[in-house]
Design brief:
2 domains, two-stranded antiparallel sheet, two-stranded antiparallel ribbon, 4 strands
């Protein structure tokens, strides 16, 4: 099934006082995400963090004597990857969904946007 989207733009003259007040309203609202959806994801993040901690603890405390420079490079790269993964998880810990009000956006920009499917 293929969807074809067509957008039609119309320039509007919307400077009546009541429409100007409507245009000053917020453009979006935050839609709460149910905790029943967030909790399993947070549990998986914590489990991965624990496993990552055990892995890094093992790698750091068991060096390879025959190839020490190679082992050191490998451990540094693994720690860098772990830190980047942890930083990547911060915004995912408490995500935000927003619902945009297209009517207010059209009023503020002065364009009427019609969607045709």
């Amino acid at each position: 099934m293929q969807f074809d989207f067509h957008f039609f733009y119309f320039k509007l003259n919307l400077f009546s006082p009541d429409r100007v007040d409507d245009a000053r309203q917020p453009m979006s609202r935050v839609v709460p995400i149910p905790s029943s959806q967030l909790t399993p994801y947070r549990v998986v993040i914590v489990l991965r963090l624990i496993i990552l901690g055990f892995f890094l603890q093992y790698r750091v405390t068991h060096p390879v004597k025959d190839a020490y420079p190679l082992w050191l490079t490998s451990v540094i790269c693994e720690i860098w990857f772990a830190l980047s993964w942890i930083l990547d998880q911060f915004p995912k810990w408490s995500p935000v969904n927003r619902e945009t009000y297209l009517e207010r956006l059209a009023l503020r920009s002065g364009w009427l946007i019609l969607f045709s499917f």
